Amino acid sequence: MTEPSQLPHTSVPEHQPLAGGIAARARAAAAPSYLARLNPEQREAVETLDGPVLVLAGAGTGKTRVLTCRIAHILSQGRARPGEILSVTFTNKAAREMKSRLGEMLGQAVEGMPWLGTFHSIGGRILRIHAEMVQLKSNFTVLDTDDQVRLLKQLLQAEGIDDKRWPARMLAGLIDGWKNRGLGPTQVPSGEAAVFANGKGGKLYASYQERLKILNAADFGDLLLENIRLFREHPDVLRQYQHRFKFILVDEYQDTNVAQYLWLRLLAQAPSSTSPRASVPSPLVGEAPLDPSLPGLTRQSIDSSRDDRSPGLDALHRPGDDEKKVVGEREKNAPRNICCVGDDDQSIYGWRGAEVDNILRFEHDFLGAKVIRLERNYRSTGHILAAASHLIAYNEGRLGKTLRTEDVDGEKVTVTGAWDSEEEARAIGEEIEEFQRAKENLNEIAILVRASFQMREFEDRFVTLGLPYRVIGGPRFYERAEIRDALAYLRVVNSPADDLAFERIVNVPKRGLGDATVQMLHDHARKRRLPLFEAARAVVETDELKPKARGALRDLLISFDRWRAQAEVASHTELAEAVLDESGYTDMWQKDRSADAAGRLENLKELVRSMEEFENLQGFLEHISLVMDRDGAAEEEAVSLMTLHSAKGLEFDNVFLPGWEEGLFPSQRTLDEQGRAGLEEERRLAHVGLTRARRRAKIYFATNRRIHGTWSTTIPSRFLDELPAHNVEITESKGGSGWGGSGGYGPSRFDNVESFGSSYATPGWQRAQANRARGGGGRQNHGFEERQSSYGSRDAGGFAKPKRAPLVIEGELIAKSTGTTSDFNLEDRVFHQKFGYGHVVKIDGNKLTIAFEKAGEKKVVDSFVERA
Q1: What count of other Cβ atoms lies within 10 Å of the Cβ of residue 657?
Q2: pLDDT of res. 738
Q3: Of residues 252, 355, 485, 786, which has the active-site annotation?
Q4: Residue 64: which region, alpha, beta or left (left: phi > 0; alpha: psi -120 to 50)?
């Protein structure tokens, strides 16, 4: 008998278990239960444990499940203990959710994961352990923003710098920006330091850091910046953590800033076997490398690469021949087990320092990295995903993926044009009421706006309709600090006895009337049984106050007397503008250099605009009382109202997206400041908005909107023309007086679109105009489908008239002709509800060109004016 070892060698084909066979089913049964719930791409992301991995997780593709299952898999396979896993999230909420899910899967094992948390919480933990190495004590205090500003004010005073011209809050914002980029006081470029206090920004930054050490304190930015310094100056400490963390997991990698990126890169590189000093990463600025194992990656190369958003990222330096040995040595080391999960198409926080380039260059930073794309969406219907994917494909700076679903196509994304923002709010309110009548849950309805000032119109409308709503990510419009301040001024003008309002603004803006002065006024008012305003009038006639405070209080009282007299002759909107300007309140926010100052000024303009709808100041203030009093129970169903930035991570059955107009969305300010990079971030924001919707996404734009206090005719957003025609449907506004003509019944206002002199020259517009010239109705051609309004045209007798099919184009709504002749004559004096009084200078059918006394020359439809 031949020994087995003597049998001739013949090739044996590789065996794979048959699909559905005994072996395959047995292996599936033996697999952990958490793997059974994953799709193939998710499972690959969970089971690929060795080496660097980038998981490109599109919206609604289950990235949180992948992260939690990956941690569970690492532990169940015995690859690491709980304390050897570093898992970093961006928010405490995300960290709590991950811990909760892991607790359900692992039980008590999750309690042994001390390194699961946010960047700053983990950075603070490391800093307390090694505080002495960065000149702190382990019980150091973390300053909040108010304490930080107060400390900077002290430093400005010590330097003799005018705090009004160079606000401490502006300096706090600059320092925070520098820290987010990993820049210490000596590393701030001189050009950037020069923007504050004539070049003293760098010196003040150094003094601030020195003062923090004396106070045994750190601010939020220090929790990472001091970590980076600790790792650079003490490589033995860095190696300790590199050896400790066998696996690193990062959530929302596309939102990391430079400091977070540097911190992760230091921890994720292979532990050096060279002498301690040889492995110290070089300074963060200049030509020196960040890290000896990455000879070409310098701070300059990172900065220069920001202007190149393409996936190639050629700005990264390639090693020369003399460096290949070092790179080869790095590749021989065991690759770090780092897994970053993110979506380059959802990077929308560039305004606060996030660098989308971090995720785009992942494969350059971690050689041999594996990229796994999660493209199967479990949230939205087919039409919504197709529209979002088609839109984001216009971005050049992306790694590329296409979301898909196994769900039904569902309803198409709708695009609706409204006459103005008021009609836009009215139309959306009516659609929501229809959902409510159909027993839709109000909690599953959201309105996502680009700018917070858009909320006011919707809040007022919801109060009128009695629709419960909640503002997510911030206070309601009338609860914002700047709005409360402005209303307090107007309340005192209306009623001098309103003590609460007077106390709120007596020292806003700063007039040198502090708590001691206010307490004196209260004492005097109680003794004399007077309102605070009258007590102040009595006090300024005495010597009880210091001359400067007495003069400031007297000036304020004189101003209120003047405004009260002005209220008798001027309109309440003109009065409000005068109060805000003459009180110095507007000027206070104009001088404020903080990031939210511009938004506060927009809110103040929107407040003044909202007053136009009321007959007088008293009526407006009564309306505000009604709005402020409406506060439903927390558990009550309510429509969610928020900005697009606040909507990240949320999802709803029905999503309304108003304000898709050039200048508003995409934001003109973003385009002016950031160019193409800004446009791509705005487009990512639009993608995020669309992918919040599960069943319905409804886009609105207004033809007229008041921007910066002036009514302007707007152009629909370029993003509309970037949507795929076969996934989008044009609908007519249900707002009553918009595109549907007078009162919403009957044909639209425009008979001859060309008479308005439109220069809108997109291909879709040109095709529609050519089709119109041929006499085509547009339905048989390429473009959006058109759905008839539910409101039919009726004559005076109430009988329905036949309705002509509207024109259809790609990405634009063309109104229908009225075909009537105006009853007005040239030079007729008329009144328009929004533009005021004027006289007719041109007549074209039922369209009038009117020279308004305040708004200038406007083209309007005659049904919206009346003879004066």
Answers
A1: 29
A2: 42
A3: 252
A4: alpha
